[in-house]
Amino acid sequence: MVEQEVELSLDDLKAMKPQTQITKHICIQGWSGVAEWKGVPMRDIVKLVKPDKKAKYVVFHSYDVYDDGSQYYAGLRTSDMRDKQTILAYEMNGHELPLNHGAPLRLRAENKTGYKMSKWIKSIEFTDDMSIIGKGRGGHREDMYLFDWEASI
User: Measured between alpha carbons, how far apart are the two ends of the chain, in Å?
Assistant: First the structure.
């Protein structure tokens, strides 16, 4: 549900104006950590693709596939993409993003807990209806474990 569908390589994203931020990651499992992240602000991606006004949600699809064949995904509100600290990160602590932290690309949405920050991003989709994606609860964790889909801090 965008006016301008785009396909961007990692090099294309790195050619865009970057943003660097030092933030605290808060995991739903009870641990936290601080890191420096560098990437492209999602508000710039939103400006580029021009979502339809009816698009209420953004879905981040991951390369992560589970044994049952389900693919990890996380849904957030389109309004979350305008937050100044929501970025597509490709660097961590001044180095290329490590694989175990989501390389080549991961979402950093600092107003959410960690499981909403998809790692290994494959594609991004704007939609007006979450019920048609996965089991319709707003994300893989929500579908499988009935986590709260808002997951706000």
Answer: 28
